[in-house]
What we know:
- This protein is mostly helical.
- The strands form eight sheets. Strands 5-16-17 form a three-stranded antiparallel sheet.
- Strand 11 (487-489) and strand 12 form a beta hairpin.
- This is dTDP-D-glucose 4,6-dehydratase.
- Keywords: Coiled coil.
- Pfam families: DUF3160.
Amino acid sequence: MKYEIRLVVTYLVLLILIVSLAGGCLEQSSGLSRENGTEAIEEVDSNRSPSTGRSPSTGHLKTEAVNLSGFETGNPALVGNYRLEALDIELKAPQYDLPLQESDISNYGEFSQKFLTDDTALEKLKENGFVVISNPYNPKEEDITAMYNRLGNEGQLIFITSDTLLHLYHVQFDDSMSRIEQEELYVLLWELDKALLNASVSDYNSASGEEKEAAKRNTAYFSVALSLLQPEEEQIKEIEDPYDPEAGTYFDLAAKEKYQFEIPAFVKDEVNAELALIEAHEGFALSPIFHYKEDYSQYVPRGHYTHSEILKNYFKAFMWHGRMSMLLKGKLIEAEDPEKEARIQTIQANLTTSRLEDDPDLLMKWDRIYAVTAFYVGISDDLGPYEYMEAMETVFGNGSRNFNTTTMEELKIELAGYRSPEIYGGTGSGTHEPVIIAEQADELLEDTKGFRFMGQRFIPDSYIFFRLSGPYTKEYTGNQEQMPFTYIDSEYGNNRGFPRGLDAMALLGSERAVYWLDELNDSSYKNYSLRYGELDSEFSNFSAADWNRNLYWSWLYSLQPLLKGYGAGYPTFMQTDAWQDKELSTSLASWTELRHDTILYAKQLYVIETSLPIFGDKTVGYVEPVPEFYNRLLALTRMTANGLEELNALDEDTGRNFENLENNLEKLIEISKKELENEELTEEDKYYIFKFGEIIKMSVDVDEEARKTTLVADVHTEPNNKLVLEEGTGYVDMAIVAYKVPDGRVFLAAGPVMSHYEFKQPMEERLTDEKWREMLEANPPERPEWVSTYRA
Length: 792
């Protein structure tokens, strides 16, 4: 199209990768479309399973390289940095018989006196070849690296876990995101909102009729955003010492003057009413500006956004921009003339879009914010400025833009042909009739179509939750305090009220998740099998390019090797159902960290010494042999670092952190490959395992708060019952595994693993990390059912 050609030329002239990211939003569906023309070499998979998309183990692990270039495929930058190296490993790790006997284990005596004093733990170890226990060094440990040093100092054998590497990636992902948000995106958003507020006031002073009312609403809209960004007096504090723990936590004194504005008098009442609802965050209420119901409980800063006053304000303002929609239709609007209100909201969207289009500096700032966040989390699930620019060009051409009743109907007809959202975000909840079938859900999504200034992003797990649970129920009439994850609607049959993390893991390829959904009677609900089958068909056809469109999707792609079944040739303990349950828990904990990091929208190189100690035939420990996982995490780490560097968003410290993680992952691939091929480890390999705790401690330059494993994220809202589904990660546990070395001896080694929780919470009490830690300390929820197969 003419408009798209002009847009691409503009981006090439600017030579800014960031802008080309934003340009991609014109053609990309926010849903699960594969129409991006991307060609990729995928893993060899001749025996694909329809439920998991995985091949049965054949004693050989062979994958091919994946080399994605965004500019070559027409999908700019989002996948341009993903490079997955080929693997070719003959699986012949030495085996032992289960159940294990104490006499089979070379270091049983010393190890058991320290860690296996509980009879249940010992029985599970014998039965499965491994067990997970509460951390004997510190049951409330929040640093996943601490256990390695304790084990090493005591001369115990070390088990290097996938949990550790996943948590380290989370730490660096979260730290890099929070840095750019605090140091750049906050300022850009302030400047953008301030300029658009001034433009809206100018439009209001020069317009008449409905256009004047739309300009007034925009004035109120941007005034709310600026009010949320603006520092309060108690948020300002001068910190002179850069090493002070509070450095970077508060606004500095200069912010008081820099981030100031006055709410225009003609919108002050509406703005203050909106701000009062945001501050109260008590759930659904009618928006004074938009006249549909909004969930104000969403505006409680959560995730890493509680770590500084700047991030708290950024969170609330960005949430406002991400959730509040200028609707095309009036069905969800509660007013005397809903269609007139929808027309005014559509004029609002077009006025804002026109201002961005006419001012290259403003558009570049919008592009910068959108593209950085899109690289992390993905593209918006809603229509935005570029779709509205294209629609206006179709209706008005190069002529003047008169937003009268006739032209607005033409615009609305044009925009109606654009994609609808894929995920229902709660807009106007309680206004519509109860949704019973999928077709009605699609109709509801159509009713929420409209313009969002910086729309919340399409993520696959929310899509899964919507399609499997959605708002496909009427109401729950029982005791809400006792309500399980699912409930029965007496008129319409057995309907699912709450999703589970198991749903997402099942569609990522976990057969154990499928098993537990059946075993826990969480897959026998009305239409569940039909919807699951539709989703499975979509997900099983994804290419490597689909899975690596942004960091969020690529993180999920990295988890998939952990979720498969481990067959012949893998260590004995990994071939058990219990180990699959443990990996399921690890993956859920990592997914929780992803949701935590993105809740608003997820060095020093250690050089091995020249003179190494000689270990001889002494074993020092074991690396969890999951090279396919390490390989994907390595590709994701490189994609993250390279993409941020191209976006000019990678500072020196963050760059070193990612480089260190790359070096560690390369070494773990090398060692785990040797373990699976039953090769002796070199002295260097043994030294690396022996010193692993020190190496990773030095490799991650972040503060103690950022290292903590105790995180929480709300992932789903059930408005009928005013409850949210919370996913939490808890204290560090200890895994003990029995492994066999090439000379035939069996040893026990220990290492840290993450813990995972899933529970409901009142929506007006969405948890922050701080509140979650208080709950863990005083009254933790029950752990998921399946952990009993491996945890003592």
